[in-house]
């Protein structure tokens, strides 16, 4: 179940060449039918001047709740490197220890399947729990 109300879509917006990244750090979801939801965050990556829109939600994973990535708020901060690599900040991961997640635009595109809520990005870099 996805919760898009009050998700703060557009809280973080960055551009690099013909790519634009727009994030919603308070996007929430829950796999079980409960009144609670995890604010994992999500971002949308537009490539080649809006010819393709990809969702990049690396904190929407099976490792949820506060102990994992359940409160990640991925996309609270975001940036492109000089080479166009996407870098996201997730301040709520691992009991608010925080996390950095990064993937190339090509890795995001190759791993994106719109019919799946969890898309594992092959080659993604991320900090682990301390």
From TrEMBL:
Example GO biological process: integrin-mediated signaling pathway
SUPFAM superfamilies hit by this protein: Integrin alpha N-terminal domain
Alphabetic keyword roster: Integrin
Taxonomy, superkingdom: Eukaryota
KW Nucleotidyltransferase (keyword) present: no
FG-GAP repeats: 1-55, 59-112
Name of the protein this chain belongs to: Integrin alpha-5
Lineage per the UniProt record: Eukaryota, Metazoa, Chordata, Craniata, Vertebrata
